[in-house]
Amino acid sequence: MNSLFYKSFLITLGWLGMVNVILAQNLSISSGQMEGLDFLEKQQQRSAQMLREIGGIISPSGKELERAEKVATYMKEIGLTDVKVDDMPNAIGVIPGKSDQVLVFISTLDDLETVALHQKESGKLPVIEGDRVVGPGTNTSSITVSMLLAAEAIMKSGQIPSHTLVFAAVAQEETGLKGMHHVYNQFKDKSVGFVDILGDGRSISYGAMGIHWYKIKATGPAGHTLRGGLPNVNQGMAKAIDRIFDMDYKEDRTVINVSIIESGKVFNHKPETAWFSLDMRSLNNETLSEMETKVLNILEDVSKETNIGLEMEPFQITPGGQIPNALDTPLVSHAKAVSEYLGFTPNMSNAGSSNMNIAIAGGTSAIGLGGERGGQRGFPDEWASIPNMINAAKQVFLLGTYDW
């Protein structure tokens, strides 16, 4: 063999070896972690039964107490410490770690109002059909089951995490992220990060899009058609909506939408009040502030032109933000390594929108573990995937037991 070729061959082998060492360093799985993964793989049927129980509890936003108490019961059975249901009501449990710093895992307790209506109409618990759990209440609650299973796997495998782990199923996500606000304020000063569990981990959000929802309320004189059509709240709203859509924003993934318009009830009588929804989103908080000022100016101008009162009322404000060099932070890099270990090439996004927004807006590292969890959310035939539920549990388990 040519000596120069032979040396090149050895050098190449050396580089390949270094690459393999680097990959192993990214995620080295211990025997205890393998034991935990094996435990999770055997929980398919049990996870489905847990989801029937938790997801079958009617739990619209603001009325989550029964579901929170059920989750807390599971936490106690698993062996978590300091288990409590607070006033929100959030269900919270802890696994002590080697340090007093905390890594906080978040799942959502509440459902859409439409889900609660479908549950009441059904009058029965979800059913297991093959590798799915089918029925209203299953989709969102599947992530809480994943979180509980991951916590149990940590306890059963004897892993002592590097940091103390907090598991929080939070209330009122659909109505202002109120439960997350409460948890964030409780743990922000000693946290290494927050992990919002949203799916099986095939996507990871590390930044937050700001989302501002408003009700634009219109008021004017009521009256019969024969008394004249103007002033008319509908004319005021129509002019305002048209000008709002004319605002031109193309940067920072900025978007505007009007999706709800509510006004009169009969053909021959103009209404005294009406309103429309306004949904504004951007990665740039300054852009959102500028947009709001422009909307207020539009409403003032239209009000003068039409003699209709127009008021901008905040409905739900979800803060946005970006963590500097987020992709290089331990939380994001570890989550990416875990996702890749489990066979995904995760989609990385700086435009998340969930409980994680609260932490990021506060300057704290946070991620959203997105991906698949089921389908038909909000419909009577809503369902959750059992394999995806197990995959999500594996993501949480490996992140929680990572040697930080």
From TrEMBL:
Q: Which GO terms describe its molecular function?
A: hydrolase activity
Using the record for this protein, list the coiled-coil segments as residue ranges, or answer none: none
Domain of life of the organism in this record?
Bacteria
Q: Which Pfam family is an annotated match for this chain, by its short name? A: Peptidase_M20
Q: Which keywords belong to this entry?
A: Hydrolase
What residues does the Peptidase M20 dimerisation domain cover?
206-306
Write down what this protein is called: M20/M25/M40 family metallo-hydrolase
